Automatic annotation (TrEMBL):
Entry keywords, A to Z: ATP-binding, Hydrolase, Nucleotide-binding
Signal peptide boundaries: none
Origin organism lineage: Bacteria, Pseudomonadati, Pseudomonadota, Alphaproteobacteria, Sphingomonadales
GO molecular function terms listed in the Swiss-Prot or TrEMBL record: hydrolase activity
Protein name, as recorded: Allophanate hydrolase subunit 1
Residue stretches making up the Carboxyltransferase domain: 4-204
PANTHER family in the record: 5-OXOPROLINASE SUBUNIT B
Keyword Coiled coil: no
Length: 226
């Protein structure tokens, strides 16, 4: 059974720790508690921030107090199953070929797998959005197949493109912005995860399911040109 640890973060935030090991069940529990709190919020609730193994709750200290918020969280745990939303599923077309997969050959040597096997393993993974962090739109996906669970590179590499699909430490990212990274880039998609002009700028929500679909380089170029 999940153990909850409550930590005060200043006078206006409560951090709820559910564990220290990232896995799909724990992430689902975080998302369910978050949904339950949104359905029945404590007084003065300002924002909730779900992470892979914790939930940060920010509130107005003039409208509520720490013990009141904690009591709401404890009640939300009991209501979490009923409040949990049905996870949306996103299909992300990915090209695992040539210049769009700059780390594929090096990763193949490291894992002993062929480039085709790496692409096949990755596309067959069962992915779930664990959390956002590090940069806007930087959604951490759990569910990378075990043969691809490699550590990050020793040093970051600059100038990776938006839409780069990358893996490291058992997780996957679709690059939302051009930036340096120490993750292994094995493909690219034309789908934009960060959409600043939209009412909801993030394509994914924590708890969403992601499925990758293989496409060729010609199809990717067509999608990028739209």
């Amino acid at each position: 059974m999940t153990q909850f640890i409550f930590r005060a973060v200043g006078e206006a935030a409560l951090l709820v720790d559910l564990g220290d090991a990232i896995d799909a069940d724990l992430s689902e529990c975080v998302v369910a508690i978050d949904a339950a709190l949104r359905a029945a919020p404590p007084p003065g609730l300002r924002e909730t921030v779900p992470a892979a193994t914790s939930l940060l709750i920010l509130f107005d200290p003039e409208a509520s107090e720490m013990r009141t918020v904690e009591a709401f969280v404890r009640e939300a745990v009991g209501n979490a199953v009923n409040a949990s939303r049905e996870a949306a599923e996103h299909v992300i077309p990915v090209c695992y070929e040539g210049e769009h997969a700059p780390d594929m050959e090096q990763l193949a040597r490291r894992t002993g797998l062929s480039a085709q096997a790496i692409a096949k393993h990755h596309a067959e993974g069962d992915y779930r959005v664990l959390m956002y962090g590090f940069a806007p739109g930087f959604a951490y996906l759990g569910g990378v197949p075990e043969p691809l669970a490699v550590p990050r590179k020793a040093a970051a590499v600059r100038d990776h493109k938006v839409g780069s699909v990358m893996i490291a430490a058992g997780q996957c990212i679709v690059m939302p912005l051009p930036m340096p990274t120490g993750w292994w880039v094995i493909g690219r998609t034309a789908i934009q995860i960060l959409r600043p002009e939209a009412d909801d700028p993030f394509l994914f929500k924590p708890g969403d399911r992601i499925r990758f679909e293989r496409i060729g380089s010609d199809e990717l170029e067509r999608q990028l040109a739209r």
